[in-house]
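Justification of computing resources. Each target in the renewal requires a structure prediction run like the one illustrated here; the chain below, 450 residues long, is used simply to show the kind of job we budget for.
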Amino acid sequence: MKKLLIIFLAVIGLAAAAPAQSLTLTTLVSFANTNGEYPEAGLTLGNDGNFYGTTDAGGGHSEGTVFRITTNGLLTTLVSFANTNGSYPEAGLTLGNDGNFYGTTDAGGSNSDGTVFRVTTNGVLTTLVSFDKTNGEAPLAALTLGNDGNFYGTASAGGSNDVGTVFRMTTNGMLTSLVSFGSTNGENPHVALTLGNDGNFYGTTDAGGSHNDGTVFRVTTNGVLTTLVSFANTNGEYSVAGLTLGNDGNFYGMTTAGGLYSDGTVFRVTTNGVLTTLVSFTGDNGETPEAGLTLGNDGNFYGTTEGGGSHSFGTAFSMTTNGVLTTLVSFSGLNGEEPHAGLTLGNDGNFYGTTYEGGSAILGTVFCLAFPSPPVPFITGVSLSGTNLVINATGQNAGTYVMLASTNLLLALGQWTSLTTNVLSGSGNFTTTNAMNPNVSALYFNLEAY
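Resulting structure tokens:
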């Protein structure tokens, strides 16, 4: 009887990603006044792989900064605002087609009503617009790049009714007011606009609408505004978080209050205004969300709440499209507290964000939420049990893998035969049994993530 040669090979493919619950938080920076303090906004990923952001205060003149930070926490202050060039930026930055960043400040400028600026990656700042109340005042939101190459944004006040505007701006600072809000169609927009698949923009207002609890609206590039939803407390109220376009073409967002427990909600809204409440925050799982959601590579949404959680200092969470919410982190103070901004997905697949307070100086932090590397699955051994071959393997707990076999290693590429698919047990081990073919001189086994 001829002897059967058994060979088992390295893993083909990668192990499945670790479940979201295993995300770990690392504090990259604790702000300390001179390098900024109280970051209101999230981070923006630059073409160089670094992140860029703003702080609402601190810096050389105590009126806020623009900064760059690497993924390992090296922070460089690029701009210290000084009133005439803007003050107290509450919004994040937007990457332009020219590789520069564009942003807004809540105050400062020629009229002390806020500005729009452009800043290069090495910190050269140009003030493009100084608001003057008639064209808007106190912009609190980031800009959105339109399909036409112009930027679109909102101001929280000013305009003909002094309750906010929607505007368009060219890259050289020519600003056109498109909408002046007027109570019934919304008041005081705090958020950036979101570009829809139809080329229109979608957003929310903090107040106004039929119940004065805020609205969801659509606005065209020439300023035709349609109110899609008027919040009414039970379905949410006071949205200061922007909308996120889902893979299904619907928008997902949050309200800071309202819902079943008055602690805020997560909702889905269609382009024609059909709203579904997905989550009512309870305090334990977070409360008072102030930021938009981020769509992850896994199709789930990730976000933050300003309060609630185990320590009442806010949370980071994941949520499926049907509203199953998992708390990933409860901020504790030292690792940050009160995140006012959402999460940004890095090139490494991890999430990065800011907290308004907390950290070693209690002036805010930059943090990373990282997926730990899952264990690499591999075949641990092959043995003979009667006329059967027993193949043992190990990998990630509850991972799904397929065991493959081939009789010819040189021709094995694309010619592997699937023996079985297994879900690993809690121990991360499984065993496959395969009948031995006495007419085969050699067998090659492999393990692949399924």
